[in-house]
Design goal:
By secondary structure, the protein is an alpha+beta fold. It is built from four helices and seven strands.
Length: about 160
């Protein structure tokens, strides 16, 4: 009888503590959609988009045709774009800080679905800098998925989701 009682107490103890150790949601969640275009065309289109400063404010970091992965970064994101793209969770003290600067690094991965169709996955990593006087706080921010949807549209999707 005693081992059963101890097992029940141990189970109840662990069951009450488990929510305290719940796994946090990931900060970077990719957005994906199928694009009705061949993979080579989508890769070339996105590579050009990230390389051409007259079209986007991104700088191409890498474009690997073997892994079908493109990485691009935009620094000095203006506050209007930032407010549209990202949400930064801060503590109560940092809430009075003002947005000073931000960067977005996007990773695009392509997979061939059919001869004339490509699966596009876009993940964005946002880093914001907030200032109050001489104090600066860098924050890893979460996406609102607007930027990812824009990139999927550039790739050729008619209905980015």
């Amino acid at each position: 009888m005693k081992p059963l009682f101890l097992s029940i107490v141990a189970f109840l103890f662990l069951a009450t503590l488990t929510p305290a150790f719940a796994i946090e949601q990931p900060r970077i969640v990719p957005r994906a959609n199928e694009v009705p275009k061949p993979m080579d065309e989508v890769f070339a289109r996105l590579k050009k988009y990230f390389s051409d400063p007259s079209v986007s404010h991104f700088q191409l970091v890498s474009a690997d045709p073997k892994t079908r992965t493109i990485v691009a970064k935009q620094s000095s994101v203006d506050s209007a774009s930032w407010n549209n793209w990202a949400f930064c969770k801060t503590g109560p003290v940092e809430m009075i800080y003002k947005y000073a600067d931000g960067s977005a690094t996007v990773t695009v991965k392509l997979e061939k679905t059919t001869k004339h169709s490509t699966f596009v996955s876009v993940a964005a990593d946002f880093q914001g800098a907030y200032r109050l006087g001489s104090n600066e706080n860098k924050v890893a921010c979460e996406s609102k998925f607007v930027l990812e949807d824009q990139i999927i549209s550039v790739a050729g999707a008619s209905d980015a989701k």
